[in-house]
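step=predict obj=ATP-binding cassette domain-containing protein n=271
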Amino acid sequence: MGADHLSGAAMLRIDGLRKAFGEKTVLDGLAFEVASGEVVSLLGANGSGKSTSLRCVVGLERPDGGTITVDGVTAKPGEAMPTVAMVFQKIHLVPRRSVLDNVCAGALGRLGLSRSWSVLAFPREVQAEAMACLDRVGLADRAREKAGRLSGGQQQRVAVARALCQRATVLLADEPVSALDPAASEQVMNLLRSLADDDGLAVAAVLHQPNLARRFSDRILGLAGGRLVFDSRSAEVTDETVASLYRPALEALEAAESAESAESAEMREYA
């Protein structure tokens, strides 16, 4: 684990974040912080607001209220902050383009789309920076290969390298290992941990694997109903604490299945 960051200055701070889709409230005054050099994992049942909170931070969703502050700068609603990058479960690389092409794309925010047609269109300094980012994730030797030829774990590491080429200080990861096998999951989580410890990034990750969250995180946030249920050091989060996050959703599912079964039985009785 990293050093004690709980009393340090926050690189990412969200306060009172609210978001609704129609009549469904997804975020209900959510607030949390992530410091430089810290890995924070978000746990919770589907629909608890984990991914939506990260999507609001990166500018993919426009919050209905609350504030998002990155390194002391408060974003306008829906604004994409240039030093915040995000990696996803679906990795969003261009399979037919080279690994280096994909990583150089992280620099487009400061170069413009006219430079995106080929790696040859990127300045040499960007190519050199992208190569350094690939070296950081252990894939410099695969730079000229097409991204689609890499394994899922390697592609996710390329996505992280692209985020580094964006010069991100805050790295968000939305279920980054859900589609990976255990060995690749370990590699990706070790990389995220290293980026916090060695490079000082603030890392916030949505995970569905409590054991990985406990092993690689400084803190774990539990979300339910768009609210923060707990914010605890990873070592303090017990199996029962985690189970309590998912129990209401399981009970609701069981109730729905029971009602459906009763309705089916009633229909058969009158058939």
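step=describe
Confidence is low (pLDDT under 50) at residues 2-7.
step=end
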